[in-house]
Amino acid sequence: MTTWRKLGLGLVSIVLLAGVAGCGNGKDNSSANAADANAANNEKTTINIATGGAPKPFSYVNDDNEIDGYDIQIVKAIFEGLPQYEINIEKTEFPSIFAGLDSDRYQIGANNFASNAERKEKYIYSDPIFKNQFVIAVAEDRDDIKSFADLEGKKTSVSPSVNYTVALEKYNKEHAKTPVVLNYTDTELAVTLQNVESGADDFNLIDAAMLQLYIKEFGLKLKAIPLSQEDTDRIGVPYSYLILSKGKNSEQLTKDVNSRIQALIKDGTISKISEKYLNGDFAPELQ
User: Fold this and answer.
1) Quick check: bond before 95 cis, omega within 30?
2) What is the DSSP string of 99-111?
3) How far is the C-alpha of 270 from the C-alpha of 21, rounded, in Å?
4) Which helix (H) or strand (E) holds 228?
5) pLDDT tens-digit readout, 95-127
6) Is 219 left (phi over 0), alpha (psi -120 to 50) or beta?
7) 10 Å Cβ neighbour count for 63?
8) Which segments of 88-134 does DSSP mark as H helices, in order?
9) Residue 219 to residues 38, 137, 197, 256: CA-CA distances in angstroms?
């Protein structure tokens, strides 16, 4: 009898203790419930990324019909370390990247974007993902072009809205006595550079790394004319970036993306991607 009574009291005590542990205080319970809810909710935020598919090697369609390139691989590396997001990379016309960012259809644009004042008013720039030098590409036998002033009256093919085009348009408006002749086109860069080689165009403004790659790949008889600091400043700082829309989640997305960019610079991932796609280390400095 005594044994059963003791056993009964012991069971009651266990039940009471379990009840007390289960009740706890309101604050602890709320935290536990919130954690359980977060663990159960494994939904990822989809980030739509737009690219124009040119110029190579920053963005292009490879032999397997996949979107590839330096910017694309950087984006993939960034989001490999951000499991809370799922990315969708879409190839579109270059002007449509901006229209999509304006409407928040796209959250990120990845297309070797340089910085300029007009874009900085409308979009968020990531930390730099690429550092380079701007040059003027001319035929090997030309010696008459050394600076922006020498471009006056000369002819070049340009893509609408890119940083080089914006710089030349601004120069024509503010400085040129004889405007630079701008032929707006969506021609592939290889063809544009071939036109410079043949003399159909007088020059092309381009990144030094990209020019060297195209000279090597296509055997072009071109040379690079380095720009002065003054002329470099007309185009912008020698970095390229991802650009982000100013959507509802842009602040957190920007923080996450920038954190990953710095981690990828530090661990050498961006240098490795650069060596593969650009034949040199063009990783920006840690910030």
Assistant:
1) no
2) HHHHHTS-SEEEE
3) 51
4) none
5) 999 999 999 999 999 999 988 888 899 999 999
6) left
7) 6
8) 94-103, 117-122
9) 56, 14, 10, 41
